[in-house]
Design brief:
The chain is mainly alpha-helical. 65% of the residues lie in helices and 0% in strands. Keywords: DNA-binding, Transcription, Transcription regulation.
């Protein structure tokens, strides 16, 4: 049976690279870092600054200072505070999946593909950084709704529309799969949103128990939605 596996793109994901270990600002200033590593330092610093001061109260100067670079150095990676804020949300809310991820895999079973998809999806729920960014998104939706709406229009909506088209194309190529998910691909990962809320609000062992139950039900749901007609 053809698998959709990691080809299913999700709205929540862990960044492709792990967050570098924190070092003090003076060490960062003396060290020449590769661009991707420096960019990650800046994103980490931005998360700290936005979480403390909010988008409106945050300054590029303080973000640069937290990252151990100059303001000009920050602008070499991000053109504005707005771009930095959107890039930070993108690291968690937009999956790193590429179009090539939707190539059919005829060797996998549907069950193994679903398990791979859920592993990717639920691993984000265990990431403190992902939780922090989700908290920031929720808070800023109240404090700076226009900024979140701009990110939604510029990044999230086009991303989801493209993934929706890829999902529909994938299902058309696999006539044995149910097309019920083609209406809105958010159905594929919506139970994980509830699991994420449990982790954010409750946490600890209580949340872990609920999340395990949700994940198990989520698996059964996907198998039913994508099973042979």
């Amino acid at each position: 049976m053809v698998a959709f596996g990691l080809s299913l793109s999700v709205g929540l994901s862990i960044p492709m690279t792990q967050t570098p270990k924190a070092v003090n600002a003076s060490t960062r200033k003396r060290t020449r870092l590769a661009a991707p590593v420096r960019r990650q330092y800046i994103l980490d610093a931005a998360l700290d600054e936005f979480s403390i001061a909010g988008f409106e109260g945050a300054t590029v100067e303080r973000i640069a200072s937290r990252a151990g670079i100059t303001k000009a150095g920050l602008y070499a990676h991000f053109k504005s505070k707005e771009e930095l804020f959107e890039a930070l949300l993108d690291t968690v809310m937009l999956s790193p999946m590429t179009d090539e991820s939707w190539v059919l895999d005829h060797e996998s079973t549907l069950a193994s593909a679903v398990d791979s998809f859920l592993e990717l999806l639920y691993s984000a729920i265990d990431s403190p950084r992902s939780i922090a960014i989700m908290r920031l998104l929720i808070v800023e939706s109240g404090r700076s709704p226009h900024r979140v709406q701009q990110w939604y229009q510029n990044s999230y909506r086009p991303y989801m529309e493209k993934r929706q088209r890829l999902m529909e194309a994938y299902l058309r190529q696999n006539t044995h799969l149910s097309s019920v998910t083609s209406g809105h691909m958010a159905l594929a990962f919506s139970p994980a949103v509830l699991a994420l809320l449990w982790q954010m609000v409750i946490g600890g062992e209580s949340a872990a128990f609920e999340i395990d139950a949700i994940r198990s039900s989520h698996r059964e749901l996907l198998l039913r939605l994508l099973s042979t007609d």
